[in-house]
Structure formats: structure tokens, C-alpha cells
Backbone:
């Protein structure tokens, strides 16, 4: 089963930026879809963004143009670039390839 390892989380001030990485144990050019989720006590497994094997991307409405999902096929890695971070973006972020298992997640904390 495909596995994902997330990294890149941290603590930033409002308006700051972070880039999350998700390295997958498989050829991501063959994986139909990889999704970024976030999890808080109030909202579990909220979809943030997705990227397909064809490179197509989609974002949830709350992203509002602030985040960008991309991939490096050579490195089997999917990225989530997050700009203009807000306190409400505080969450554990996970990526999950279609048919794969959940990783351990990476924590993002946005506060002043």
C-alpha cells in the first residue's frame, strides 16, 4: 500500500508562508489523485487541495487563492505552498494518495 510522509510544518505569524512536502512511496505519475487534508478538533479530514496524475488541481473555497499544490515526479513528492496564512489555518496537515494510507501529518500553527 502506498505510504506518504509529510514534512515542512511549523509555527508562523499571520501573513506568513510555509511549504509542506509529501513524499510518496511510489511513482506519483501513476497515482490518479493525491489530496492534502487538514484536521482540527472541530473539522476532521477537511480537504484542502488535490492534484491528479494529469497535473490538474482543485482547491477548497477557503483557500481563496492563497495555496498552491504542485509535484515533482522525479522526487515522487507533492508540495503545498501556503501563503498569507491565517490563525484559522492552524491544523495538522496530511497528504493521502488515492488507495494509500495516511501519514503521520505535519502541524501548522499560525499565531501572533
Residues:
Amino acid at each position: 500500500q502506498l505510504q506518504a510522509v509529510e514534512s515542512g510544518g511549523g509555527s508562523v505569524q499571520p501573513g506568513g508562508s510555509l511549504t509542506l512536502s509529501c513524499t510518496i512511496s511510489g511513482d506519483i505519475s501513476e497515482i490518479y489523485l493525491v489530496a492534502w487534508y487538514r484536521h482540527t478538533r472541530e473539522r476532521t479530514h477537511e480537504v484542502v487541495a488535490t492534484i491528479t496524475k494529469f497535473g490538474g488541481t482543485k482547491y477548497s473555497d477557503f483557500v481563496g487563492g492563497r495555496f498552491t499544490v504542485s509535484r515533482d515526479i522525479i522526487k515522487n513528492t507533492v508540495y503545498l505552498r501556503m501563503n498569507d496564512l491565517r490563525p484559522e489555518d492552524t491544523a495538522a496537515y496530511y497528504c493521502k494518495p488515492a488507495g494509500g494510507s495516511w501519514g503521520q501529518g505535519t502541524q501548522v500553527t499560525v499565531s501572533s
Summary: The CA atoms of residues 15 and 84 lie 4 Å apart. The mean pLDDT is 95.
